[in-house]
Design a protein that fits this description.
The protein is of the alpha+beta class. Helices cover 39% and strands 17% of the residues. A hairpin with a 5-residue loop joins strand 2 and strand 3. Helix 1 crosses helix 2.
């Protein structure tokens, strides 16, 4: 899964939002990678949990998605 957008760079708490949403949904991250540009964060989850993780991230970042800072 990838959370990306220009609003990520330099914004405190974006990674915490990602991991908080996953944690609340009881989804474990298997692997984590962040681009050097700080504009994207990639997380690998077990395939059966992928839809649950996407739902959790969409709910958590609904406001940011509406503003277009995270596409």
């Amino acid at each position: 899964l990838e959370v990306a957008g220009p609003g990520m760079k330099g914004t405190v708490g974006m990674a915490a939002g990602v991991f908080g949403a996953l944690s609340q949904s009881q989804v474990s991250a298997i692997m984590i990678a962040q681009a050097s540009s700080e504009q994207e964060l990639c997380v690998v989850v077990e395939e059966p949990a992928a839809a649950k993780a996407v739902d959790a991230l969409r709910k958590r970042f609904q406001y940011e998605l509406e503003l277009g800072v995270v596409p």
